[in-house]
Amino acid sequence: MANDGKGIALLPGERETISMAGNKMSFVHREPDSAYSMVEWASEPGAPGSSVHIHRMTDEAFYVLEGTFGFQVGEQTVEGSAETFVSAPKGTKHAFWNQGATPARMLVTMSPSGFWRYLKELAEGLAAAGDDAEAAMSLREKLSEEFDIEVVGPPRRVAS
Hints:
By secondary structure, this protein is α+β, with helices and mostly antiparallel strands. The protein has two helices and 13 strands; from the N terminus they run ββββββββββββααβ. Helix 1 (116-129) packs antiparallel against helix 2.
């Protein structure tokens, strides 16, 4: 990674990648003093998407690179293929999931920048909890309080 105080260049292979239940997140940009962070999200067909949730202080934006994602933004549900942009400003109920029969990838931008830590701590905590549903629920509750996420519905999936 090159960073001379004026910018950053993150070259292929320099990103940290984590996994959760058929989803892979690769941290593209997560500088602590930045205005935003960016994650590349890859999702297998049938993998659970995000829970329906609200952020009170965090804006999220999604740009589909390949495949098809479903998005719930407020009460609206949309299907987005490559080149689709979706914005979920703070205070907006939203969720996303792989809507297609093939793998899908998108870029997720979050502002302010620290929300990527939620994904990292959740992935690590769920791996440690294993099959312990009570530990997983306790972890989710703790992290939700800490990282500005209010879960208001279950994870979304493609309708069968």
